[in-house]
Amino acid sequence: MADKAEEKGGIVETIKTVVYALLIAGAFRTLLFQPFWIPSGSMKDTLLVGDFLFVNKMAYGYSQYSCPFAMCKFIDGRWMGSEPERGDVAVFRHPVNGADFIKRLVGLPGDQVQMRDSVLYINGEEAPQEDAGTFVETYEPQGSIGNTPQCQNPGVALGNDCVKTRKIETLPGGVSHSILDVRTSRLDNTPVFTVPEGHYFFMGDNRDNSTDSRVPQTSMGVGFVPFENLIGRADRVMFSSAGKSMLYFWTWRGDRFFEKIE
């Protein structure tokens, strides 16, 4: 009888340990940091496909979207909210389809944002760009999805260099970051967008390969993003793998481990 009681007690303790671990992990994910894998190339070369990072949820406070599956319905608006800053790389919940997106914040409430001939203008002022050479990557399937990158040099064969023009853009306030250019696209020239109060305007750094606030809000387009939809700020790449799985150690990008996101 004693053996059975000890066995039962051991099972109960194991279950309690698992439950406590899940609760702690859930609290960590909800209140502090949310893990995020970069699935696409819209933020190259700031973020690469296969980068892994933790999103800092404390940066902007908490809304219903701070909980997994937007379960924090009891939060009205935003608690302990801190305004994001222009130039932040942030994760937000798509206003229509509910997916998590990561882009760079370029437009604050009340700003007028426009693209003219591939150049960003904010409140009528040009965000200056400086030439920064080229960004070169291998033309091959990337990440778990296996999409191939877009290239400025046409007709690239698998395994060859895929090239994009790279520039350094400086936003009002002084934040500088790299942007990539592939081609002339419809998003290189836009109407003037006036950002409503309580909303933000986001763009990808890989300008010709990003669905962002330049596209009106639909199940695909992003449009203006409400403050409550912001989940957190991306501060640092923790791990990076160019392969389909993080287990493929030969595809790890050791030079990107713990790299600051700028």
What does this structure look like?
- With 262 residues, this protein is mainly beta.
- The protein has two domains: 1-31; 35-127 and 190-260, Umud Fragment, subunit A (Ribbon).
- Helix content is 11%, strand content 32%.
- The protein contains one helix and 15 strands; from the N terminus they run αβββββββββββββββ.
- It has one helix at residues 2-31; strands at residues 33-37, 51-56, 89-93, 100-107, 112-116, 119-122, 125-126, 129-138, 161-170, 176-181, 193-194, 199-203, 225-226, 230-240, 259-260.
- The strands form three sheets. Strands 1, 2, 3, 4, 12, 13, 14 and 15 form an eight-stranded antiparallel beta sheet that branches. A four-stranded antiparallel beta sheet has the order 7-6-5-11, with no helix packed on it. It has a three-stranded antiparallel beta sheet with strand order 8-9-10, with no helix packed on it.
- Strand 6 and strand 7 form a beta hairpin.
- The longest helix has 30 residues, at 2-31.
- It is globular, with a radius of gyration of 21 Å.
- The model is unreliable at 16-30 (pLDDT under 50).
- Its EC number is 3.4.21.89.
- The active site is at residues 42, 103.
- It catalyses: Cleavage of hydrophobic, N-terminal signal or leader sequences from secreted and periplasmic proteins.
- This is Signal peptidase I.
- It is a single-pass type II membrane protein.
